[in-house]
Amino acid sequence: MTHLFFFCTVAFYGCATAAYLACLVRTSPFLTQWAGRILAAGFAAHLLSTIHLASKLKYLPLTNMQESLSFFSLAIVGGFIFFERKYKVTTLGSFVIPVALVMLVASSSLHAEGRQLHPVLQSNWFWFHALLAFASYACFTIAAGVAVMYLIQRYFLKKKHFGALFRKLPSLDTMDEISYRCMTVGFPLLTVAIISGSIWSEQSMGSYWVWDPKQTWSLIIWFLYAALLHGRLTIGWRGKRAAILAILGFIVVLFTFLLMKHSIVW
What we know:
Elements: H1 2-25, H2 29-57, H3 65-87, H4 93-109, H5 124-159, H6 164-168, H7 172-205, H8 213-235, H9 239-259
Helix pairs in contact: 1-2, 1-4, 2-3, 3-4, 3-5, 5-7, 5-9, 7-8, 7-9, 8-9
């Protein structure tokens, strides 16, 4: 049953990606509506797949790269659905949903054998930490997608190229606002994730901070987004600078998530 839900999810996400990309070429209320419906169906199938797998494993599927990529994809789609419905920005799906699809396909290409849960991971603090971390990473992913849209729209304005894509993208102020809201949601989640991770580390290894590579890079991510939000609030960092930093932050998030996957502690 888990595999059935999973393959349905891949199919739905693939169709949704195609529909959202088509929205960049041709704006149609029918196409926009069905893109959202297909994505919602895919999210439901993905959620059912995750719940079914968790019921078999007896723990949340977050303990290896295959499971984590799938859950990251789920978090991105869930976050996108929330922000898309709040701000009515359909074109955002053209820049965010392909990322979720790639992660899900990458997850399906990996093989993870059944195994007993590591004692270090048998802690409620780990699950709390992991869920918050993925939620924050999803927010930062969406912020980066909006930042890419912002830079494209800014380029069109600078070159006075007011073509079809220009008219489909939101205004610069709208995109700047969405990116800011994503980060104001993601940053507190990351903060609590780091704190809960430290408590988990103390319970499992006797120290709140062991300078594990992934722990260290998580702190770097925190400082990067803290600097971005502080600069925005105090000296008015907006526009191009904020967009570039949002993309840089997402690159660091991906580096931490993918290249530091062998770390036990974070």
